[in-house]
């Protein structure tokens, strides 16, 4: 495994208590608001799938599908998905998934949110670099989105 190509890592310091950041992550409806996916009435439960329509302009025709892996209150939320699975004509179900993990750490000024998406080295070579590139930029945007969401809620 080459960590430079296998994983995306981001972190942001959010000026909000860990409990508030956790609710924005672990409450599926709140997650959907800042992430851009319709998850009204959904829940994140370890071992169970969760899905909803993407609400981000230009991607509304896509279904966001994950399998929740771990839910450790106020510490860790993780799920598996097929990265950058944006072609509705392609069946990605036979491909390996990546693992997305959000970790929270309380700080004196708020909460440190760490995001790691790993497993890109297992993605088929013809999709790997584009999936890594697109998700890398996507996570940059999503870290800003959660920060803006928490500042306004």
Automatic annotation (TrEMBL):
Gene3D superfamilies: 3.30.530.20. Belongs to the AHA1 family. It comes from the Bacteria. Residues 15-150 form the Activator of Hsp90 ATPase homologue 1/2-like C-terminal domain. This is Activator of Hsp90 ATPase homologue 1/2-like C-terminal domain-containing protein. SUPFAM superfamilies: Bet v1-like. The lineage of its organism: Bacteria, Pseudomonadati, Pseudomonadota, Gammaproteobacteria, Lysobacterales. InterPro entries: ASHA1/2-like_C, START-like_dom_sf.
């Amino acid at each position: 495994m080459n960590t430079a190509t296998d994983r995306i890592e981001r972190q942001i310091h959010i000026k909000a208590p860990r409990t508030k950041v956790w609710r924005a992550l672990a409450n599926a409806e709140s997650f959907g608001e800042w992430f851009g996916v319709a998850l009204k009435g959904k829940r994140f439960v370890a071992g169970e799938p969760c899905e909803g329509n993407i609400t981000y302009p230009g991607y509304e025709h896509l279904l966001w599908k994950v399998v929740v892996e771990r839910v450790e209150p106020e510490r860790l939320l993780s799920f598996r998905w097929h990265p950058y699975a944006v072609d509705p004509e392609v069946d990605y179900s036979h491909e390996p998934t990546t693992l997305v993990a959000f970790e929270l750490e309380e700080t004196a000024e708020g909460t440190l949110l760490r995001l790691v998406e790993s497993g890109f080295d297992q993605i088929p070579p013809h999709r790997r670099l584009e999936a890594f590139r697109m998700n890398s930029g996507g996570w940059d945007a999503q870290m800003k989105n959660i920060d803006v969401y928490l500042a306004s809620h």
